[in-house]
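Closing statement on the magnesium ion sub-project.
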Amino acid sequence: MLKRIHVAVGIIQSGDTILLAKRHGHLHQGGKWEFPGGKVEPGETVAMALARELKEEVGLEIHGCTPFMELAYDYPDKQVFLDIHLVNDFSGDAHGAEGQEIAWVPMSELSQYSFPDANRPILDKLLGLNC
Ligand SMILES: Nc1nc2c([nH]c(=O)n2[C@H]2C[C@H](O)[C@@H](COP(=O)(O)OP(=O)(O)OP(=O)(O)O)O2)c(=O)[nH]1
Ligand SMILES: [Mg+2]
């Protein structure tokens, strides 16, 4: 039985655009576009993990976030629990702090990007919000 990995995920919004980052090829789900985030470490709250990961991965300081969705998904090789938050209060200029490609993508273009399979319900809800 694999241990389910708790992941803090941020949907970072600026106007009508959302920040995506491309996972490095060698990683789990490599080559796919993701919402920045990462594993909640022992002793951390999700909010702490989200703030740490967004600083480490895209160089942003977050000042507030709102719960958006929780999602359990079983990949053949990994079980994840995605704890997804909307972030629209932040400072700094986003950059790929780990050498990854990033993009601010208009909502209307999100469906053109390839995401990990777990993300389907996130996209459905986000695009639904846009109606
Ligand atoms: N950040 C993020 N992870 C996602 C998304 N969708 C999805 O299935 N995942 C999965 C991929 C990974 O198995 C896991 C995230 O873990 P990770 O490997 O990026 O964790 P991390 O940033 O802490 O990286 P590391 O320190 O272990 O290298 O969640 C998403 O939209 N964003
Ligand atoms: Mg990560």
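The chain has a mean pLDDT of 95. With this model delivered, the sub-project is considered complete and its resources will be redirected to Aim 3.
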